[in-house]
Amino acid sequence: MLSNLLRQLTAPTRPPLTETDARLAIGALLVRVARADGEYAPEEIDRIDRILAKQFDLSPFDATKMRRECEEIEAEAPDTVRFTRAIKESVALEKREGVIRAMWEVVLTDGDRDPEEDTLMRMVAPLLGLTDQDSNRIRLSLTRQ
């Protein structure tokens, strides 16, 4: 499964991702934003596990297993642009808003917005078909909770 998704991400032309591969790409994007500041904190790992469990209706065990796969994919995957392009082509807009929400949840987990995380969020939102304003609105909704 890992090699299939990586092949698809690097192929010059490709069909939309399967639902399973789209989920893995989303999870890998969450790992990427968590690692963006050079620190992959236990709180971020726990947050990713909880997001995966909730979004994909997984048990805690299955969410952890999926996150570990996503970590491998993220480490081997090409640039972020390919991730986001594959997700945009395979996931409906309202679910892509959920991807941005989940990414912001990971970024805000440690209470510190790092410049590298902010840069990645500014890059990813438009690549997923959302505006900076959409991303900011989503972030603000999380900070008001």
Ordered list of secondary-structure elements with their pairings:
Blueprint lengths: L1 H9 L8 H17 L6 H15 L3 H17 L3 H11 L2 H16 L6 H13 L4 H12 L2
In a few lines, what is going on in this structure?
InterPro entries: DjlA_N, TerB-like. With 145 residues, the protein is an all-alpha fold.
Q: Would you kindly provide a written description of the structure presented here, covering whatever features stand out?
A:
This is TerB family tellurite resistance protein. Pfam families: TerB (PF05099). The structure is a single chain. The chain has 145 residues and is an all-alpha fold. The chain has a single domain, classed as TerB-like (Orthogonal Bundle), CATH 1.10.3680. Helices cover 76% and strands 0% of the residues. The protein contains eight helices and no strands. The chain has helices spanning 2-10, 19-35, 42-56, 60-76, 80-90, 93-108, 115-127, 132-143. α2 (19-35) runs parallel beside α6, α3 (42-56) runs antiparallel to α6 (93-108) and α6 runs antiparallel to α7. The longest helix is centred in the first third of the chain and has 17 residues, at 19-35. The radius of gyration is 14 Å and the shape is globular. The mean pLDDT is 88.
